[in-house]
């Protein structure tokens, strides 16, 4: 019984860590996609002109 | 955890972005400047383009900032995907994931839309952007299924996802035309892929090293 209690506590610990990792993953993907969008895709004229050489060099579609 | 993820993503992006900016300065940028001479000679100077960085140091600075933004973005996407997949983040694995990142955003996309110099004939940019995102995402997902699954059905789906963007086909101009000599265009396509690969590998390596260091320090203070 003690053993099963311990393993369920361990299970809870693992799942709490997993939830934290998923949350961090979501934030990372959101911020990361935003930065890639800004550098490579934004249609704003100033963003395009500033990132022009980067877009060509990193094979983002340009012009 | 979120703070650690953002800090590592941004530091890795800064290191890889600045390294790539230096690499571009001696590889791709001189080719872009040469191509613009041909483009301007043929079409004249386009007026009313809005703000653009002045030639010289301002343009180099703008490119460097955009490189850091792109590399930080890719670093965060790399960390996000590895965390979501439950992968241990350390240098070798992070570099392996980064190689798949390059295969997705560099190789697969270049197969349909070769890296182009200014002055090449192109179709509507939004259609190309949609194809680009679709090709990168499908290739990434396909590689994940191929490497991670042991079931034949999932692996077949992975292979199909990798092939799909090329069966659909990238938007291409009816007639390939360019104001740029083919010699310059070929050199640009090759060097931009090399720069792109270097950016991904360096990003993955720095993410892996920093994650290991931060984790070791976190454990040190906890115990």
TrEMBL record, chain A:
Domain of life: Bacteria
Listed InterPro entries: CbtB_put (IPR012667)
A Pfam family this chain is assigned to: CbtB
Keywords (A to Z) from UniProt: Membrane, Transmembrane, Transmembrane helix
Name this protein carries in UniProt: CbtB-domain containing protein
TM annotation in the entry: 21-40
UniProtKB/TrEMBL annotation, chain B:
Signal peptide boundaries: 1-21
Keywords: Membrane, Signal, Transmembrane, Transmembrane helix
Transmembrane segments: 61-83, 95-117, 129-147, 152-168, 188-211
UniProt-recorded name of the protein: Cobalt transporter
Organism: Methylocystis heyeri
């Amino acid at each position: 019984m003690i053993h099963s209690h311990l393993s369920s506590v361990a299970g809870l610990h693992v799942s709490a860590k997993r939830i934290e990792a998923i949350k961090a993953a979501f934030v990372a993907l959101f911020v990361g996609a935003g930065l890639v969008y800004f550098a490579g895709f934004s249609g704003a004229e100033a963003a395009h002109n500033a990132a022009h050489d980067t877009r060509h060099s990193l094979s983002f579609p340009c012009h | 955890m979120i703070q650690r993820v953002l800090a590592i993503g941004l530091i890795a992006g800064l290191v890889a972005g600045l390294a790539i900016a230096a690499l571009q300065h001696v590889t791709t940028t001189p080719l872009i400047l040469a191509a613009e001479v041909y483009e301007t000679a043929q079409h004249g100077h386009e007026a009313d383009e809005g703000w653009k960085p002045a030639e010289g140091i301002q343009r180099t600075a703008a490119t460097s900032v955009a490189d850091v933004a792109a590399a930080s973005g890719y670093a965060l996407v790399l960390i996000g995907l590895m965390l979501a997949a439950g992968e241990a983040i350390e240098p070798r694995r992070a570099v392996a994931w980064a190689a798949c990142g390059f295969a997705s955003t560099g190789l697969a996309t270049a197969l349909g839309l070769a890296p182009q110099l200014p002055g090449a004939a192109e179709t509507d940019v939004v259609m190309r952007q949609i194809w680009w995102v679709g090709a990168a995402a499908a290739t990434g997902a396909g590689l994940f299924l191929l490497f991670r699954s042991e079931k034949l059905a999932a692996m077949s789906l992975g292979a199909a996802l990798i092939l799909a963007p090329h069966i659909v086909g990238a938007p291409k101009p009816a007639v390939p035309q360019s104001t740029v000599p083919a010699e310059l265009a070929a050199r640009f396509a090759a060097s931009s892929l090399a720069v792109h690969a270097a950016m991904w590998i360096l990003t993955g390596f720095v993410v892996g090293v920093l994650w290991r260091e931060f984790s070791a320090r976190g454990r040190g203070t906890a115990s």
